[in-house]
UniProtKB/TrEMBL annotation:
It comes from the Bacteria. This is Bug family tripartite tricarboxylate transporter substrate binding protein. It comes from Candidimonas humi. Keywords: Signal. InterPro entries: BUG. The lineage of its organism: Bacteria, Pseudomonadati, Pseudomonadota, Betaproteobacteria, Burkholderiales. Pfam families: TctC (PF03401). The keyword Signal applies. Belongs to the UPF0065 (bug) family. The keyword Signal applies.
Amino acid sequence: MRKIMFAISLALAMIQPALVHGQTKAWPDQPIHLIVPSGAGGITDSLARILIQKLSPILGQSIIVDNRPGASGVIGSSYVARAKPNGYTLLMAFPSHVVNPSTVKNLPYDTAKDFAPITKVGSVAEILLTNRNSPINSVADLIKEAKEHPGKLNYGSVGVGSLGDLCMLLFQSQAKIKMTHVAYKGEPEILSALIRGDIQAAFVSPIAAMAMVKAGKIKALAISDKQGSAILPKVPPVAKAGLAGFDVTGWNAIFAPAGTPKPIVDKLNAAINKALADPDLVKKFLSQGVNPIGCPPETLQLAVEHDIASIGSALKAAGVQPK
């Protein structure tokens, strides 16, 4: 019996340090996977890779960018929604995240409930463009022309529900005008259509349009947010150029699976916001036409809920149905 009791005591003595270690083991103690629900080389992928260069040293752990593109971000987002809520699988969402509830039938997750918000990462506005030879030289001119010729002016975007399309839908709603939508595969095709005169207007990302605007190949009328653009400082906000109150931006943000422990959420939030304040990161983000922004998790959650509702209303008013 003494031998048995000694053996049990010895086993417990050996197990106890392991249990204590397991209880006190700090997060993160293994690599973190940041899921980017779009392809390599795109703006969201680029921002993610800039971010992890600063974030990894702060957390003291490697961060792996994992591209899972497809279905306007649904494939990558679904993967994160189903992942273990342990802080090792994160999502770098882009603007379609809050559009998909209104455009995708039978979305395999609840956008507002199946993700734990961490923080916004950056916001991007769109530049309102027209043909360089067009008689339209201002927001007021575009509104006047559209009112005189309802439905005759064409605008381009990369698809229904895209940020450029949403900007123009809200622009039309606020200005009480009607234009005709033409969808293109990408922003280069939209710019070519503007140059040819196939379309009369489009909201396009600053980074895509900047070179052609500076070369005088297309005209920039205004920018969609009220702050203006750091890389095109002479382009006024729409709100100051003829449509008061207009303010539309898209954002990238970090989410974890719902149920992720609050201490991990708080640590991620603090670390990412610290990385976003790094001067080198700020410079690189601005060069992409993106304003680095951070926020508390609660603020991001409110933005998600607000944008799902407002975008849903705009798309419904435009007759867009989920597919």
